[in-house]
Amino acid sequence: MKHPKKKRVTLQEVAKHAGVSTATASLVVRNNPRISDKTRKIVMNSMKELGYVYDRVAANLRSQSSNTVGVIITDISNKFISEFLVGVHETLEEVGYTVLLGTSFDSLAKQDHLLSTMLEHRVGGLILDPVSGSNAETVNRLNQMNTPMVLAVRELPEVKSDYVGINYRKGSLMATNHLIDKGHKRIAFLGGVRTSSTWIERMDGYQYAHDNAGLIIDNNLVVDSPPTREGGLEAVLQVLRNPDPPTAIFCFNDLVAFGVMQGLRKEGFNPGQDIDIVGFDNIPESDVYHPPLTTVSSFPRLTGIEAAKLLHQQMSNDSHEQQRLILEPELIVRESA
Amino acid sequence: MKHPKKKRVTLQEVAKHAGVSTATASLVVRNNPRISDKTRKIVMNSMKELGYVYDRVAANLRSQSSNTVGVIITDISNKFISEFLVGVHETLEEVGYTVLLGTSFDSLAKQDHLLSTMLEHRVGGLILDPVSGSNAETVNRLNQMNTPMVLAVRELPEVKSDYVGINYRKGSLMATNHLIDKGHKRIAFLGGVRTSSTWIERMDGYQYAHDNAGLIIDNNLVVDSPPTREGGLEAVLQVLRNPDPPTAIFCFNDLVAFGVMQGLRKEGFNPGQDIDIVGFDNIPESDVYHPPLTTVSSFPRLTGIEAAKLLHQQMSNDSHEQQRLILEPELIVRESA
DNA sequence: CTGAAAGCGCTTACAG
DNA sequence: CTGAAAGCGCTTACAG
Q: Which nucleotides of D are covered by protein (CB under 7 A)?
């Protein structure tokens, strides 16, 4: 876990080689304009000659600053999250931060551990896609350390923090309305973790659409599961055992929808014809599924970009008021419904 | 880019509060058995009471060690790479490393910049999925710094380093043979960057299969492109303009295959019936495509795990001989060919 | 515009 | 088993 390295060339050595003081050399590395061009060149030369590599760690320690940002996500395999990460990462690198990545694999214990590690590494800020069921307490440690943070994707009810996410409720409302408009009365809602804010919000929209249409929800048609392909597969198998199965399915996300399609085929149904399906996320592959998936587009990359921007704002402004950014989704109608 | 933080509680303060010397407190934090249980408890208490957070950065500086590892990848959106990253990340976190993530977005300049940044951050080791066209010189900077490194996914001819990757040649051979066995004589090879080792190796296998069968390759059927869905789409449109179009297509990877399918449909062909298609990678979604994709499984996650293990070995053993690990692929026959 | 000295928060010999 | 002091590689006032 530890590994001693060949001795680095230090700034002192560079300074000595260039015949200046360490302070001067330090100013040169940091491009301070107060150094004459002549001196600067001499020092730069010495750096090149000796193969000097700036030690950002020592610099950060001394100046009590940080240019690293921690990013903790739940699961890279999830396309929504990986696209989110692209947005975050791209934006953060642009502004010059280096990112410490942590994956919680949806485990609260791992997330806790990662939070600690990040703090120990003196991150200047943190972007957190929290595990469902994260408690405020865990996260408030960050506030205590005065570390800027933005929460993304999943909102934590009791946590005071910047947040950027999707208007899941509206997306779910649009999806369910679409199915109702097509004449469906028995619409299942499959997948997702019942305690997560993302599930609850989708449930809200699903409920609201039913209420509006004067329909009542059959609770046997609401089956939760991990938000994965496997989860979708299991959920649909369960719901099909129902004596009165659904005629349409609203899926927690596109991954779940794939699993659902697989399950339907396995049971002899033809997805998109016998049973309509709507997904959520509009991951890039959803339009090459079989059949192409009707889904709700939720702009993961943009979510990441905005989260990174918000964090950057927080880190550069001392007086920063809390922000909450909710992106509006869009219904993409394809062949599955 | 910099951000001053509230003053941290230091180990000195803890020591004073506990009535011991800093050295003793330090030994406690690091779980040194040489400290009596009684003293340990007192110190632990003080830490809790004061809200102490270990400063790994200061510790690493002083002890000239590092428990961070840099991971530079080309593109998170690419499912092969993101799965690879999962493997790397999971393994690295298990052994207690924290990962600094960099994405080169396939730009040589960005990769160079990231390498510098990682060195400046004193990473203890590095896993590099190099941009195609990376030159040895760039990478050898690491060797100069004596930083352990393992190359993954793409091999760099002139670079001496551990490497873990896939036997692309064999995978490509299997895929092409499969198409030849089905009676195809005009097999296109679409997508991928012509200068990358991954492309060259696939080309080798494709060539070899043709030679074996006494077939000759029509160079008009070999079209390179970025290894993305968009790239596949463009490549197939180009190859279809051919007066004598192919009857089967071997795709650089599954993403390219999706693009190819889309392109075929757009031009009125029915993928898997009019024209057979084989992909490469076996990404999780490939079996829910339309039609389910015949492809070569290349174990991205395992690749990541092995890369991380190799790096860990290098970092913990001083005498480490160079290793080259090549994973064997597998043909997955589904409906597209 | 440049230099000498102190200090960021730890760990590391060295004594005892 | 514990303590006092030096030092990792930088930056930061403070002088000049």
A: 1-13
Mean pLDDT over B330-337 rounds to: 94
Q: Kindly state whether residues B81 and B147 are assigned to the same domain.
A: yes
Q: Can you read off the two tokens belonging to residue B257?
A: 């295959």
What is the tally of structural domains in chain A? 3
Identify which of A3, A51, A292 has the shortest CB distance to residue B65. A3
Q: Which of B65, B49, B50, B56 is nearest to B30 (CA)?
A: B56
Q: Which residue of B has its CA nearest to A315?
A: B3
A1 lies in some domain: no
Q: Name the residue facing A77 among B6, B77, B83 (closest C-beta).
A: B83
d(CA A41, CA B50): 48
Amino acid at B311: L
Which position has the higher pLDDT, B137 or B240? B240
- Do B269 and B295 contact (CB within 8 A), yes or no? no
Which residues of chain A neighbour B300 with C-beta distances below 8 Å? Answer: none
Residue entry with tokens 């880019």 = B1
Residue B38 is part of which domain span? 11-54
Q: Which residue is nearest to nucleotide D2 (CA to C1')?
A: B24
Same domain, A119 and A106: yes
Give the percent of chain B with pLDDT over 90. Answer: 65
**CATH code, A106:** 3.40.50.2300
Picking from B211, B174, B176, B209, the residue whose alpha carbon sits closest to that of residue B190 is B176
Residue B224 in domain: yes
Among A10, A48, A57, the residue to mutate for chain B (most B Cβ within 10 A): A57
CA of B56, C1' of C13: distance in angstroms: 21
Separation of B31 CA and D3 C1' (Å)? 18
Looking at residue B6, what is its pLDDT?
54
B153 and B87 together in one domain: yes
Cβ–Cβ < 8 Å for A134, A108: yes
CA-to-CA distance for A280 and A298, rounded, in angstroms? 7
A15 and A93 in a single domain? The answer is no
Residue B212 to chain A, least CA–CA distance (Å): 34
Chain segment B100-116, per-residue pLDDT in tens = 999 999 899 999 999 99
Residue B294 gets the label, from left (phi > 0), alpha (psi -120 to 50) or beta, of beta
A153 with A88, same domain: the answer is yes
**Residues of chain B positioned with their CB less than 8 A from the CB of A144:** 51
Task: List, for residues B23-65, the tens digit of each pLDDT value.
Answer: 899 999 888 888 888 888 999 999 998 989 999 999 999 988 8
More confident site: A72 or A135: A72
Task: Answer whether residue A284 shows pLDDT above 80.
Answer: no
Chain B closest CA to A61's CA: distance in Å? 6
Taking only the tens place, the pLDDT of each residue in A19-76 is 888 889 999 988 888 888 888 899 999 999 898 999 999 999 998 889 999 999 999 9
